[in-house]
Amino acid sequence: MLSRPMILLAACAGFLPATAFADVKPHPLFTDNMVLQRDAEIPVWGKAEPGEKVTVTLSGVAVTAEADKDGKWIAKLPATKAAASAVFTIEGKNKIEFKNVAVGDVWICSGQSNMEMTNKSSYDLDRVSAGAKNANLRLFTVNKKTSTKPLTDADDLKHFSKWSESGPESIAQFSAVAYHFGQNLQNSLKIPIGLIHTSWGGTPAEAWTSVEALQADEQLKHYAVKNQQAAEQFEKDKKAVGPNTPGSLYNAMLHPLLPFGIKGAIWYQGESNAGRAYEYRTLFPAMIQDWRTKWGSEFPFYAVMLAPWHNGDADGVTWPELREAQVLATKKLKNVGVAVINDAGDLYDIHPRDKQTVGNRLALAARAGTYGQKIVGSGPTYKDSKIDGEKVTLTFENLGGGLVGKYATLNGFTVCGEDKYFYPAKAVIVGGTIEVTSDKVAKPVAVRFGWKNYPVVNLYNKDGLPAVPFRTDDFPLTTNYKK
Predict the structure, then answer these.
(1) CA-wise closest residue to 132 among 166, 86, 93
(2) I need a labelling partner for 239 at 20 to 30 A (CA). Which of 66, 220, 373, 443 fits?
(3) Cβ atoms within 10 Å of 249's Cβ, excluding its own
(4) Is beta strand 470-471 parallel, antiparallel or unpaired with respect to 61-66?
């Protein structure tokens, strides 16, 4: 029991200024074991007492900022080279010395359940864990949260974790795709790699896009209306909005990362938008550009093409229509790539367990496209076609060492005539081209490859990367104008 003097002291303490607010508080992205982005200005921000001077120091280079009337401050350190170890401090009325800080490349890893799927749920955890210890690969997770408005106050970011080194324990519950991507990059580049994982299973791309970007596009405005309706409902009942609400995950799980320095982003999503694949042609690039605008950088963005799955009908075409939308984004925007995994799917499981192939394909694309390594980062990509009588000759890009079929007969090609009915076709590799014919089509009009929800295909380049599914026609899609 407290004595009377102690009770009086405790009671009076409630009227004293809180000393905690006077302490400098960095944004929760800044913790021990973090990776700061190399070769670019490094924003560092947080809260302090209004007017308080805050000094941020990285390996002897110091920058001072002053907290505004709301106690917010931001300092911008000059660009620095990669370093496995850096001395990093933030000092105001208190001083914070961060431990085990590195400078390297930071990648955002986002999407839905196939990005969220952990190493523990994927193939061969024991083997993966045995090679997981890597002091130069650092992991950070944004846990699940929704919001009707962008979160900017650190007090609202209790769902942020802390940075950790890669190791058997830390990777078990971490995104398997992100981990294998980062491990591949780190082993190749020999610099520190930081991975910020922020994903949520079953969520559509509009949830990861800001309301401003949705409102700005005539075809996407209806999502901004849905966001407004959800916000109004939230004001009435104070119940958190669902993760499928447009803008809700951008607000809570992406916007709070701004303006942390990053190198680029990887993305595994699309399953939840497959029924609206035609709209994804607009939504997907709008989301990418939205992120880039918010960061003020045309950073590289690599997506995973949807894996083969029956989706209720193995021969259905909604998923190839979504895959095509993913590829079209690479033509609409610069510095965007797609990793093809049509050999790493599961007919009966929307969550194929082979996530190492996925992460490695993303890493190959980044190493070739972003880091300029002299490697082949993509499989054969359709370029053009020529019809000559009963034969269609297809030409390709990204041939690498040349075209190859993994078996004697090439699978997955179909051809149609003027009736637009597609028949299985015979496909033969002739040098760097493929010749397609069918005894059921005397006058071919168009060819398709891998155009099924669950395609069985075996065309690769000699570098081991599968061909990108494609069609030579522009016939109307089954998902045209679906919202």
Answers:
(1) 166
(2) 220
(3) 30
(4) unpaired
Q: Provide Rg for the chain, Cα atoms.
A: 26
Q: Is 39 left (phi over 0), alpha (psi -120 to 50) or beta?
A: left
Q: Is 5 left (phi over 0), alpha (psi -120 to 50) or beta?
A: alpha
Are 345 and 452 in contact by the 8 Å Cβ rule? The answer is: no
> 435-445 as b/e, with b when 16 or more CB fall inside 10 Å?
bbbbeebeebb
Distance CA 190, CA 349 (A): 35
Query: What are the beta bridge partners of residue 63?
Result: 56
Asked if 280 and 322 count as a contact pair (C-beta separation under 8 A), the reply is yes
> For residue range 307-326, what is the model confidence (pLDDT) as tens digits?
999 999 999 999 999 999 99
C-alpha span between 94 and 91 (Å, rounded)? 6
Q: Name residues whose C-beta falls within 8 Å of residue 158's C-beta, 6 or more positions apart in sequence.
A: none
What the chain holds in terms of domains, given with CATH numbers, is 19-101 (2.60.40), 108-369 (3.40.50.1110), 381-471 (no CATH)
- Using CA atoms of 208, 214, 220, 226 in order, give the dihedral in degrees to the nearest 10: 80
For residue 58, list its beta bridge partners: 61, 88
CA 145, CA 240: separation in Å to the nearest integer?
Answer: 9
Judged by DSSP in three states, 165 sits in strand
151 token code pair: 């979160």
